[in-house]
Amino acid sequence: MSSRSVPVSPSRGSLRPLGLDEVRITGGFWADRQRVNAAATLPHIEGKLESEGWLPNFDLAAAGTLPAGRRGREFSDSEVYKYLEAVAWQLGRSTDAALEARFRAVARRVAAAQEPDGYLNTRFGRPGQEPRWSDLEWGHELYCLGHLFQAAVARERTRPGADDGLLAVAVRAADLVCDVFDDGGIESVCGHAEVEVGLAELARVTGSPRHARMARLFIQRRGHQSLRDIEWGRSYYQDDVPVRQAEVLRGHAVRANYLSAGAVDVAVDAGDDELLRALRAQWARTVATRTYLTGGQGSHHQDEAFGDDFELPSDRAYSETCAGIGSIMFSWRLLLAGEAATDAGGDAAGYADLIERTLYNVVATSPSHDGRAFYYANTLHQRVARRPADPEQTSPRASASLRAPWFDVSCCPPNVARTLASLDAYLATADADGIQLHQYAPATLATTLDDGRAIGLEIDTAYPASGLVRVRVTSDADAAWTLSLRVPAWAAGAVLTEPDGATREVAPGTATVRRAFRAGDVVQLALPVAPRITRPDPRIDAVRGCVAIERGPEVLALESVDFPASGPADVDGLAVEGEPVERDGRVWVRVHPVGSAAPDWPYGAEVAAPDAHAVEVPLVAYHDWAGRGPSTMRVWIPERA
Amino acid sequence: MSSRSVPVSPSRGSLRPLGLDEVRITGGFWADRQRVNAAATLPHIEGKLESEGWLPNFDLAAAGTLPAGRRGREFSDSEVYKYLEAVAWQLGRSTDAALEARFRAVARRVAAAQEPDGYLNTRFGRPGQEPRWSDLEWGHELYCLGHLFQAAVARERTRPGADDGLLAVAVRAADLVCDVFDDGGIESVCGHAEVEVGLAELARVTGSPRHARMARLFIQRRGHQSLRDIEWGRSYYQDDVPVRQAEVLRGHAVRANYLSAGAVDVAVDAGDDELLRALRAQWARTVATRTYLTGGQGSHHQDEAFGDDFELPSDRAYSETCAGIGSIMFSWRLLLAGEAATDAGGDAAGYADLIERTLYNVVATSPSHDGRAFYYANTLHQRVARRPADPEQTSPRASASLRAPWFDVSCCPPNVARTLASLDAYLATADADGIQLHQYAPATLATTLDDGRAIGLEIDTAYPASGLVRVRVTSDADAAWTLSLRVPAWAAGAVLTEPDGATREVAPGTATVRRAFRAGDVVQLALPVAPRITRPDPRIDAVRGCVAIERGPEVLALESVDFPASGPADVDGLAVEGEPVERDGRVWVRVHPVGSAAPDWPYGAEVAAPDAHAVEVPLVAYHDWAGRGPSTMRVWIPERA
Predict the structure, then answer these.
(1) Domain covering B16-426, topology
(2) Structure ipTM
(3) Which residue of chain B has the CA closest to A596?
């Protein structure tokens, strides 16, 4: 059977994603965040879209009064579409008449702004505006439509045949894109990749070969310098090297990941294993050389871009929330593509490892606990406890040390919202022989294998606080099937207990249990989540001589608000010694204040003063930092020599 | 007597700068660069100003045909003025009829563009252009005029009363600025400080109290939020905190230094010791916490700005050439202000130390040896040998690893040119009791003390290749006077030899010899220039665990083009061991290639593979790097544990 309520539904691939209709997160870490997302973040976003004018722009378009009164940047339409996508997933998770009405109201306003030939954008094409498609480098018209397509796909997969008209709007727009951009038309691409992934998925819904072909053409054209050169080079929008020839992700980190995700879709649908191999190799090198410990990507504030290999500054980490989400999109598609071309490195567990790391340490870091403020950039080191001028005001992207309710460029909040609302769909897959669990959360799973066998599971865990994951089978089977469990790369020494009580150590990668499971059978995986010291590759200059403390999938951090009154004031000028210890539900380390012997010039033959005496301080989960007012924070801590 | 051919002529201060008419560099390191500057750089710049349209803009203005055909950014006029200033200093160093004619031709074209009321800017104020003074944040009108004033001052001080009209143009423009910006007028400041330093110096030439008052008003107003807030905050243009209350330089590094230089001028002229003390304290903290080993300043590419304290990444060092020049302007003015308010740290030797460091490692790094290509940003670590697409083309600011002939924003080349052409004026000062030598180069000096005593010196040295500086007195004195010599902070163990042959060790700071010198007397200073290992303050995260090698005032670097064929390919993945040794005129270190044990994820319990065997490689003076094609380079080298 084909998958239903899923963000990605490949036409090919050994693993079939299980959708919101098959897997449901029922409690724990992520359920808490999904609850806040539904209760607080979605209304917060809609309120901002309204008050900032980004949603009213559609009304102005429908009224024919644009460009007067238009507000927001050139890509503001896309935030409305991402919001619709988020709401669609949320409605796929639980019925909510009020939310359904809100969805329909917004969708109606969007539909009313569409022009007769299918064009839809509030920023271009009317008298007094620049002409349609006149600024492919920066105009974001196709980018916006890609998000419209993803929203329509989410809606159709969670509420098939809904009479809200959004899918028809998307199809008309996609048809126009095909008319305009097919060979012989404007043979170029959008400065911000996204339409590729949108078109590919829309084609999987509509079955339209034109939409699939258009996605393929956009991927093929990228890298052939059809966009103008700019100060940061064409690598900024990946138009420097064809996708299949590239060796690593580069340029703007969101653009690079969205493009890669779309390229996987195209490679899978077209049976293009060469392209898929190239993408796997790019993923592998990007993860090995250009990814932060948190899973975050992007080292440059200036162009929101990847740096060179091993250029991974903690203090100037950009690690945009949206880049993390894009990385999850890319990794998940490679995971689903399955066994093809695994020679280039990366297997399902590797992709799911990065997804988990990014979920816990980027996606979960962005929103505040109340769901009404967000990080756009996710630094790994905050030297100054910087309070925003007005915490209620719209913020530039990354200047304060606290989360902000909204941004001039506000791509991240709705991106987080759609990711959290669809997160259930990233937990598990099925193949002909059974079920694969990729992420661990309290959840129920009910699906049917290709041969018609019904399979049910209940997952019970306090992960990541505890490493114990109990998988109870709720279905009876006469024939054997395989339950696969990811063992994270950090989980050396994990122990698996079979239904018969037999235990065995399982190595990082994939652990499997194959048998004719009976209802009530329990498979238990014990992952060692004791805090551990992590050291960086010696080629990462920015964190040489430092260690980080991790615990399970969570990166921990020092935060100044945790320091005792008699202890150091700030997280800098400290050196850590010895092993972290867990006590009272927290992880503690011993740190020594380190002074400077050279107060007037910070370089010399001898510059370090002797250590002061040590003090024990607790660590905080990185995703929880900055929840208690302005503070200083660091993930990587100098190690005492 | 008052000083003549000097860029800075304070009305007060214990040290009187000696100008081009009193000190002349006669050979060595800087004479070579001055020769190239005159022979190659000045014609190169004038050619670019012509071909890029920045000089023809003045012709269009005079013809009344602007704005059609205007080329260049909003501040392009200033590059013409900096060029004029450079040529004025060069003409002050040696007579050159052809260059004199070029100066006059350019000055004529500038004068022809001035409007009847004194306004002068090719970008604003005409029909079809934005109104005058309508964009103080980004328009740069006052900034451009500041450079005009500095050019006119240079001309008047090197060719007093020249009939080229430039001084009259400057005075008319300054009068207009006073009319428009005095209290009751536009009570604001320019988004880019510069007019302050220009007005202050112009007032010293014209004696106009209005010009001095206007400089003072601009300094007083800064920091009171008269400019709009922007994404990077008002700290970008130092409009966040009043100058007298600020604690450290912040925001755009060129703006910050130009402002500080102007503020010293104002403080000195107004007898405002409180302001002077504040500036000394800001200088001291900036040097202690926000300055690169090279003397470079500015850690952010995004806003060309200072980072937080100790945020000094090597690989993303911006260290703009112009910020280095601005720092020299600021330091030199504090040095000249002399003994007032030294309690805030910094003495003449400290200021001259930073000037020397910045001259050798920023100013000398920017231009290529042929004087026709420049660095705008001066990275301390180049990971990828990046070749520009077309080395003959105008470049963005900082993307390639090679120098570029010109930039879209081309402030640095003419700034280097005016600095090199006036460098003689930064070598020495006089006070009532004698002469102070601040920088060492082969030079002649002839001046007259306030009491009428004529003093002559000849300085003979191969510095910085050699640390031996011989100062021969060429004048006879009946009464004792004091010769002061700077002993750089790095020169522990320096030895001074008096005319009578007596030797003594002199500590870093200032060494003095006081006597009734006779012609032929020689004072010799032996500075130890053996290569030395320098370590960073433990609070500088970016270079933890690394060492740099310095020799005399020069910072050295590893550059991949120097590696033996059998050695490592790149400067990364190496660890240095042991002491540097000097051999065959080069400095050598032993480095061990260090591998990675974790090729797929760069973090883990153990990630460093064992060292490979060591190889000996030479270092290059940082200012000479990238002179032999694309290469990788690093100043800070990991130290082997």
Answers:
(1) Glycosyltransferase (1.50.10)
(2) 0.93
(3) B537
